[in-house]
Design brief:
With 293 residues, the protein is an alpha/beta fold. It has a single domain (14-177, 234-280), classed as Rossmann fold, CATH 3.40.50.720. Helices cover 37% and strands 14% of the residues. It is built from ten helices and eight strands. Helix 3 packs parallel to helix 4 (94-105), helix 3 crosses helix 10 and helix 8 (196-214) runs antiparallel to helix 9. The longest helix has 19 residues, at 196-214. Mean pLDDT is 94; it is low at 1-5.
Length: 293
Amino acid sequence: MNTTEAVTPADKDRDAFYWEMVARNIGVYTPDEQAKLRTSRVIIFGLGGVGGYEAILCARMGIGHVTGIDPDEFEISNINRQMLASSRQLGKPKARAAEEIVTDINPCMSVNFVQDKVDEHNVADLIRGHDIVLEAVDDMPSRVIIHRTARELGIPSVGMSGSPPTRGFVSTFFPQGIAYEQALNLPGMGEKLTDLELRRRIADVKKARAWHSVGLGAPSQWAQDYCDGKAGWIITPVRAHLLSLFSFHEVVQILTGREPLARAPKGILIDLDTSVPVRVASPPEGGWDYATL
């Protein structure tokens, strides 16, 4: 059987390797815009169904550096949607798998994948030195902490959420624009999340989203089990990947100096059960209700 050995920058001039790798991007993006991507630094919080695919997209698009943060290891239930997950990866830290996979895709990229949980004590140190933040975590308090800190550090951030059956939301937050908590009408604006009662109130927003999803077709028993801590969030590969794609598109637009589709308070709304499955929309009067997104 014939085999083809991999060509890496060790075998070929690194600069030539990079530009051949991204050659099909040129025409959609200019060489100058691609050069901006090559020097850009992206941090992704969460390396699961959304964040894992975002890491792969960074590698294939030619982003210069990626940092990825995730505390977890792969489980069997991850395989349905997480592009980094496979039977061979079970039990392996997601951060370690991400590093192996994305550097195999793009050996020109520098990486820093860390098995850790983000919180107020470490988030600022993790974000500093990056050009943009991609948020792809599950729990609501962590989302608030990430976007709030990015704003304080003067760095744009892209946020997302996905809800059953086939819905999703993506929006981009700029330091000089509307704050994440304000745009989404979340409780505790500006308050430290060391307050456990405030954390509970913010986390309960996702429970409200579960019950709202029941009215749109999600099983009521699942919503009850989720709220009782007996079941995980329902998510399919299609919804996870759509959230990844639109979030990553926002990142590329910003890094190349173009306007993103959904500068907050605007949002990209996804609902595959409607006749307009993807649209960019302004919030209703009073702002977004995160429980219904």
